[in-house]
């Protein structure tokens, strides 16, 4: 059965409708959803097929109080053969209600300011009724967990549950406080994506003391390698209470070493041109040592699968494995595979 190991109380499917695509509003819609504290992943372009539209709107088609005889024709004219964009939204157990409030009233003309339809909508039910068509209201999100399960299979492909996460294929990216404060987190993640990784689940985090101690356990236990520096105090000064950005990078096995090569040498002056630290770094180990602090080198990625597992628990939470699957449409295998 589709998604039997997925917690659909915390997952919704976002459908950016043809009017959102044609008006170039998809980025704006997904950015507003992400800005509301929802993790958006697995963005996928789809050309809608008749069966997908019929299943997605089955309640509309079968409700005798809402469905005129020509409603199937309205739906097919609005969707079939036209491009839509779908994505997954991960959040808390109230995600479905939160998203419905965020997108606003079905009729854009009645949606309040601050909602997606209220701010970006340009149609109305009155106009649609007069023109004998569906209202163009930009976006749909799953109504509840049962609808999320159905929407996932409809738009991403029916199939077996996503496999258990394999940390051979996932690295955690940590954009450090210097990257955030210099406004470089977007640049760092874009360069990682341009290198062929799929970047998902971006989150901004205020660092807690325990997180930095767990993350840099090796510096703490080998502190005698750093004479003249109080490593616990250095870590606290550089990280505790400051903002970092974390994300997941998905790729083929070997992703950990590929990303470490992309980052470059830990001392920015020694990092080669074309690497992130070589191109964007402005600090040096020499300056850091003279000031008795840690070098500011923008970004960390997991060293190997074991560290990726630990980094995930550190920055996302040990009980948040629902973020790991489903993330990529390819993880949802065909039923006859």
From TrEMBL:
<feature type="domain" description="Nucleoside diphosphate kinase-like">
    <location>
        <begin position="9"/>
        <end position="163"/>
    </location>
</feature>
<dbReference type="GO" id="GO:0004550">
    <property type="term" value="F:nucleoside diphosphate kinase activity"/>
</dbReference>
<dbReference type="GO" id="GO:0006241">
    <property type="term" value="P:CTP biosynthetic process"/>
</dbReference>
<keyword id="KW-0808">Transferase</keyword>
<feature type="domain" description="Nucleoside diphosphate kinase-like">
    <location>
        <begin position="168"/>
        <end position="322"/>
    </location>
</feature>
<keyword id="KW-0418">Kinase</keyword>
<protein>
    <recommendedName>
        <fullName>nucleoside-diphosphate kinase</fullName>
        <ecNumber>2.7.4.6</ecNumber>
    </recommendedName>
</protein>
<comment type="similarity">
    <text>Belongs to the NDK family.</text>
</comment>
<dbReference type="GO" id="GO:0006183">
    <property type="term" value="P:GTP biosynthetic process"/>
</dbReference>
<dbReference type="InterPro" id="IPR034907">
    <property type="entry name" value="NDK-like_dom"/>
</dbReference>
<dbReference type="InterPro" id="IPR001564">
    <property type="entry name" value="Nucleoside_diP_kinase"/>
</dbReference>
<dbReference type="Pfam" id="PF00334">
    <property type="entry name" value="NDK"/>
</dbReference>
<dbReference type="InterPro" id="IPR036850">
    <property type="entry name" value="NDK-like_dom_sf"/>
</dbReference>
<dbReference type="GO" id="GO:0006228">
    <property type="term" value="P:UTP biosynthetic process"/>
</dbReference>
<keyword id="KW-0546">Nucleotide metabolism</keyword>
